[in-house]
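Q: What would this chain look like folded?
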Amino acid sequence: MDEDNLLDSHPDLMDPDWRRHAQKDAWLGSKKDRKQFRKQQKRAARGPRRRWWIFAVLLLILAVTTTAMVLAGRRPAQDAAPPDPTSVPDVAPVDLARPYAHTPADVWPKGIDGITAPAPAAVGAFKADAVAAAYAKVKQVITAAHLDPAVLTGHDAKAYAALFAPDDRDQLLPELAEKPGFAAYVTEIADGHHLLDAGPRTFGTLTARAGAKPGELVVEAKYTVAYAFDHAHPKELMSPAEIVTFERRDETYVVRSGPSFAKSTHGLWIDDTSIAFSSVGCAAAKEGYLAPGYANPRSLTPPTGERDAPGYYDPKYPVPTLDDCRN
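A: My prediction, written as structure tokens:
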């Protein structure tokens, strides 16, 4: 008698109760396996849980480093394709000679060149040259507000205010004198902190559209400015987030001209602005000044991941509403 026949005739296997029990166990085991498989599929779709933050940080460092290497390997940095900024790792080497390494700003142009606009074309009643002039004016204002040492470290915003229409300038000057009200318009570095020679970097876009009234040309500016701060002991730092601060802004500018408006209103107006900061010194921020993240007391709790909101770095996303300086 072969082995299969021996198994079929085994007394236990012939018992109907035993067979039902065995079939139930097999079905439950199969069900458990299927349930476990579905859990694994859902977990994979959601990505790593935050409670495994150390593992996630290591993966993030690898991803950011790899992206930077690929972009650098394809073409020179100045010709790099627009980046897809996502986050700053919680743990990564800090190099003052290359402070933006391991951050989205590593491939951004220095100065205003990272803020781009489409080729000027006619918009409503405005000809292409008028649109080009509006783009140039807004870039000039952004430069004065967030890149010019006269404002950044000299804390003198008069040249910035002079770029606006006379009536708007009259409204701006008192607000620029307020502390911290001026921070809605310009960036001033907190006393005791210094920017590195790498200089601020930018990433963003300008777009033009016709305004609500005849003679109005609107320019929407969506951009981020990254600032790299000096540090006496960089080897003590755990992440470039401690020296690199990001200032994310959505701003609406209006150029007014023509007989519909009084002469004193002709020129540029700032109509609206939304701001978010990432990796900032909170004490300085509450006074309206910009300071690096290392100015904050060291926390013993794991990172919250709030810096990962993509809108802090990528203007195609809305300005984040998260606030790292709640307390």
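The CA atoms of residues 121 and 127 lie 7 Å apart.
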